[in-house]
Each structure stands twice: as C-alpha cells, then as structure tokens.
Amino acid sequence: MKILVLLLLVFLICAFSCNRTGQRGTRVIGMGAKDSTIRAHLSVLVDSCWNNQDTTFLTGISVENFVRHLNGIQIAVSKREMQAHMNVFFTAFPDLKITLDTLTINNNKAFLEWTSSGTNTGVYGEVGPTGKKVKMKGFSHLHFTDEGVLSREDVYYNELDLLQQLGYTLNPPILE
Fold first, then answer.
1. How many Å apart are CA 58 and CA 47, to the nearest integer?
2. What is the pLDDT, as a whole number, of residue 4?
3. Residue 108 and residue 54: Cα distance in Å, rounded?
4. What's the pTM?
5. Coil vs helix vs strand at 153
6. DSSP single-letter state for residue 47
7. What are residue 121's phi and psi, to 5 degrees?
8. Alpha carbon distance 81, 29 (integer Å)
9. Which residues pair with 139 in a beta bridge?
10. Mean pLDDT value of segment 157-163
C-alpha cells in the first residue's frame, strides 16, 4: 500500500510539474520542488480524499497530529478524527464534489478558494436527508511542514447558507 501511495505521489508530482499557464485561478510563487510536493498533496486531498471519498490517502499526505479548524472551531486533532469528520459529509452528501477556483502556494502555505456541491440524501449529523441540492463557496488556508506534508487546515464557509439550502429557516429570537 505504501508503495502504491508513493508511486501515485511521484506520478502526481510529474503531472503537476508540467507547464500549466492556461489553468485559471492558479498562482504558485517560487515553484520549487517543495511547492511541487505541496501541489501534489493538494491534488490527492481534493481528488482522492474528498472527490473519491477515500480517506486512506490522508496517511501519505498529512502528519499524524493533523489539525482542522472549521469556521474557527477545532474539529480534528488527528488523521483519524479528520477521517471521521470527512465521513459525516460523505454520508450526508454521497455525490459531494469539490472544485478549486483559485490556488496560491507560498512559504509552506496554500490558499484555496473552492466550490462544493452535492445532494443531501443521507443523514447530516443528527438530521435526516432533505433530498436538496447544495452549492457552497469556501476558503481554506493549509499549512505544510518543510517536507511538504499537510499539518493544519483552516476552513471557512457560510454554514447558515448551507442550512438554508437544505430548507432550514432562521427564526427571530424570543426576547422575553
């Protein structure tokens, strides 16, 4: 399995090292070997982990004590917790897809603007499926080690927008 992941990473590094000047929204400052590794790990994160819903790939691209914050709240402090967090979304939105709108890599950091879409056909947390399609935009700030391994992610998106797309409404507070 480790050999397969290593071969995949080598392939991705080679694939992303090619000239991609026509790619919209991508900016990489100082495209060195480490930036190529970061780009390859981002590709694995988005394509393999999120879009193909295979969290086992986190093993090859992130540190064991990986930390994820969602809208300022710590969600995961290990790969295992991140896998569980991702599975909540996979259960709720089996057709979940993420596309990168912009990508900037600089000094062991990546800044992503992304769009996600999916249909809520499974349980989301404690709530049953609504059958509604959702589309959200968000921003991620990812931190990498000097070896190009993912160590932290700070994700921001409008949770109220997500809930409203699922059919929920916001009621005014009771002031009595």
1. 12
2. 38
3. 25
4. 0.79
5. strand
6. I
7. -110, 5
8. 32
9. 113, 156
10. 95
